[in-house]
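Q: Predict the assembly, please.
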Amino acid sequence: MSIQIKDEDGIRGMRVACRLAAEVLDYLEPYIQPGITTNEIDKLAHDYMVDVQQCIPAPLNYAPNGYKPYPKSICTSINHQVCHGIPNDKPLKKGDILNIDITTIKDGWHGDTSRMFSVGETSIAARRLCQMTFEAMWHGIVKVKPGARLGDIGHAIQRFAEGNGFSVVREFCGHGIGLGFHEEPQVLHYGKPGTLEELVPGMIFTIEPMINAGRRDIKELGDGWTIVTRDHSLSAQWEHTVLVTPTGYEVLTLSAGSPTLPSFVTTTAC
Ligand code: MF3
Ligand code: CO
Ligand code: CO
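A: Predicted assembly structure:
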């Protein structure tokens, strides 16, 4: 399969699915407190998606090639967990940072977004990692326009992250998205300007950098899903789904609770 270009109908469908995914994160935010378990968060998210939004949680039973079916409705990745953490019965504790990654399916269209959350008061280092990873994602987003290349996005993210003393996870990347959860192209979070695929209006893909406080190396846990930093350093991730417009980008996974834009970002759609 090649990169799908979405038409007006597809874009309309994607706008809805993406907004719903962001609104799940808004809904969850007040619950992220010391003592709640990630299984409880998973149930809140599942019931909100199914009963209130009438959409499908895409991760549930998702089984890409070589993976066993994912057993929960959301991903919750805590502290040194990089991505794909599986909700469980362990309570969150003050000082934890966690990523919650939501993917909805509405009328067949997928919306994919994640944010970092702090559990009570967190360390200065943890807060800085979360904020820098948020800014790294936006450094990638603002590169999106027709004629730019995927390598421009990866380079902008890598340059910002490494310039601030962090490392970029290489093994996982952003992805095209639409009627499929993971479509072409792969959107690397590192790279060289002017390389790789040229962006064309109607492309929709995620930008979702995973940034580590320590070394970039990762490993997979025995559950077949959870990815952690090899050196157990903290890791953070943010994710938006982005449309290439005739003149720039439109961030699709926005909602009332989306965090304030970094100061270098002037617009969410252009
Ligand atoms: N939402 C993740 C992404 O951003 C994928 C999770 S796959 C799952 O691509 F099965 F773990 F949910
Ligand atoms: Co994604
Ligand atoms: Co995601």
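The longest strand covers residues 97-106. The two ends are 29 Å apart (CA to CA).
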